[in-house]
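in:
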């Protein structure tokens, strides 16, 4: 990750992020007890670990199979996807997730950027799951540099609020959001995982950081 503005999309980046996360997350899930899949997730109220995983696997398979009916990825559509997998074993859900994380990259690459947010959202949900399971590395790990690169591109492409970030765990300052110069960039000082939480609308739980020039809620790229 550099401090250069991400002017050009890297079509392979979402797939790399998914592959790195697959190799870290799937083995972790394979050894968890069955009851762990019923644990609640603080980041997704009303959803268990299994629900989050079922949502993720369904979303990725929609991308792989190009199934984008009206209302896709809406709360109602997500709930239907989860319900359709209600009779599956936990292992079957994990199997589908592994397949989706393996096969979705090329489809996302071909979509011209329209589906890049799906890959970032999947990585964030993996952090939600880690947190619910009490595992270390929520919103961190080997995928973090790829996630930051993708976040920089997505926020720039969407014309999001400009922000300069001085991250405790990254050598160079990073730039996010639009680059027109019409608005003075906000400033962030703190950890990379906390910044990801802010952009994903996740609780920061008293983490130490400084944010100036923008409200935390304005950073959320995934909506309410």
């Amino acid at each position: 990750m550099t401090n250069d503005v991400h002017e050009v999309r890297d079509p392979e980046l979402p797939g790399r992020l998914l592959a790195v996360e697959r190799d870290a997350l799937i083995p972790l899930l394979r050894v968890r007890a069955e009851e762990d899949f019923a644990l609640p997730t603080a980041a997704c109220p009303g959803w268990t670990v299994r629900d989050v995983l079922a949502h993720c696997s369904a979303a990725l398979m929609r991308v792989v199979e190009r199934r984008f009916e009206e209302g896709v990825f809406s709360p109602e559509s997500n709930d239907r996807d989860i319900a359709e997998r209600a009779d599956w074993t936990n292992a079957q859900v994990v199997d589908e997730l592994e397949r989706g994380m393996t096969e979705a990259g090329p489809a996302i690459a071909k979509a011209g950027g329209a589906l890049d947010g799906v890959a970032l959202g999947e990585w964030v949900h993996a952090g939600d799951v880690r947190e619910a399971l009490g595992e270390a590395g929520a919103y961190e790990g080997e995928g973090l540099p790829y996630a930051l690169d993708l976040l920089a591109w997505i926020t720039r492409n969407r014309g999001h609020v400009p922000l300069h970030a001085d991250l405790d765990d990254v050598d160079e300052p990073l730039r996010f959001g639009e680059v027109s110069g019409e608005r003075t960039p906000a400033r962030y000082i703190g950890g990379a995982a906390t910044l990801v939480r802010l952009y994903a609308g996740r609780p920061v739980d008293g983490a130490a950081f400084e944010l100036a020039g923008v409200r935390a809620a304005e950073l959320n790229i995934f909506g309410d």
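note: The mean pLDDT is 93.
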